[in-house]
Structure formats: structure tokens, C-alpha cells
Amino acid sequence: MILRKSGVVVLLLGVLLVITSIFVSMFLLIYGIPLLVIGIIILLNKKEDKIDEIKFKKQKEVIKNK
User: Which residues have C-beta within 8 Å of that of residue 42, sequence separation ≥ 6?
Assistant: First the structure.
């Protein structure tokens, strides 16, 4: 769940930099395009979400057993 939020944030930042680079300076494309790619990769990474779910379930079980 946390990865989804961070992926959206990185993706939006990348889009913002790309749009800003069109009006201000093409130099911002150096930062905008990689952020777009990283944001998409984070959003599409389903494996990490499954790992986080397993960790969260184990933490819940430990709390219940106390």
C-alpha cells in the first residue's frame, strides 16, 4: 500500500517536471523522464506488495498472541 502512494507521488512529480520543462527549460527533462519511469515501475511492482502483506499479517499475529 505504501509503495502505491509513493509511486503515485513520484509519477506526478515526473509529470510536473516534464510539463515544466516544456515551458521553462529542457534541462528539467533530465530529471522528469527518469522519475516518470521509476514511478511507473513502482506502480507495476506487485511482488513487493505481496511481501508487505505477508509482513503485515505476521505482525498482526504477533500482536494478537501477546
Answer: 3, 4, 6, 7, 10, 11
State the total domains in the chain. 1
d(CA 16, CA 36): 10
Residues near 31 by Cβ (< 8 Å), separated by ≥ 6? 17
Question: 27-38: per-residue pLDDT in tens?
Answer: 889 999 999 999
Q: Which triple of cell numbers denotes residue 54?
A: 505477508
Q: Containing domain of residue 56, as a range?
A: 2-65
Grid cell listed for 62: 504477533
> Measured between alpha carbons, how far is 19 from 27 in angstroms, rounded to an integer?
12
- Single pTM value for the model: 0.65
